[in-house]
Amino acid sequence: AQRVTQPEKLLSVFKGAPVELKCNYSYSGSPELFWYVQYSRQRLQLLLRHISRESIKGFTADLNKGETSFHLKKPFAQEEDSAMYYCALRTGNTGKLIFGQGTTLQVKP
Amino acid sequence: GAVVSQHPSRVICKSGTSVKIECRSLDFQATTMFWYRQFPKQSLMLMATSNEGSKATYEQGVEKDKFLINHASLTLSTLTVTSAHPEDSSFYICSARDARAGNSPLHFGNGTRLTVT
């Protein structure tokens, strides 16, 4: 079965601390993984995708096929990073995304 | 960048009535659009895949006669919640992918908050 798991509902850190939002997936084929972010009162927007291998707003994520993980990391959290983060898996060529439960990141001053 | 417009942003209706939600891709063509439902503090659940010019594909457990989807053009998909009941109250979100960009990511609308009284 295709599934995305984000084990933490809430992650609270102080400004400047490192952040790691966990994401594990279950998929027998070749996965395509994404991280989406939703700031307060805004629409869901793409943060990054594993095939781009880029860093956006200081965030990076590496696909680990052995551990079936795609954890999102940032070395120094900022208050403006506070938001809801969703990990998503795209399977096949239909384009549909399967989302994890989401993790609320709270960065305290 | 690619923009997906969703209308209305919020709607309140009486039990038994039907509500139509529109999803438009403003600066790109989308042969496929997706409709999601989000309960408070929960994840997005895919309801159906809307295919331009053909029938929608519904996920398991989603009633196709209750959630009617029409994708009549490359830039518009509509979701109609028929004979709405209070349990249909939720946040509905559409998304679309640029048909010309083979591996492009999904772009999301702002969502529609439906409240059925």
Kindly state the number of beta strands of chain B: 11
Arithmetic mean of pLDDT of chain A: 92
Unreliable stretches covering 5 or more consecutive residues of chain A: none
Number of DSSP helices of chain A? Answer: 0
Silhouette of chain B: globular
Q: Largest interface here, residues on each chain?
A: A-B, 19 and 20 residues
In sequence order, what are the helices and strands of chain A, one letter per element?
Answer: EEEEEEEEEEE
Helical amount of chain B? under 10%
Strand content of chain B: over 45%
How does this model look, in words?
The complex is a heterodimer of chains A (109) and B (117). Chain A is built from no helices and 11 strands. By secondary structure, chain A is mainly beta. Chain A is globular. In chain A, 35% of the residues are buried. With 117 residues, chain B is mainly β. In chain B, 0% of the residues lie in helices and 50% in strands. Chain B contains no helices and 11 strands. Chain B has strands spanning 4-7, 10-13, 19-25, 32-38, 44-51, 57-58, 67-73, 76-81, 90-96, 107-108, 112-116. In chain B, strands 2, 4, 5, 6, 9, 10 and 11 form a 7-stranded mixed beta sheet that branches. In chain B, strands 1-3-8-7 form a 4-stranded antiparallel beta sheet, with no helix packed on it. In chain B, a hairpin with a 5-residue loop joins strand 5 and strand 6. The radius of gyration of chain B is 13 Å and the shape is globular. The interface between A and B is medium-sized, with 19 and 20 residues.
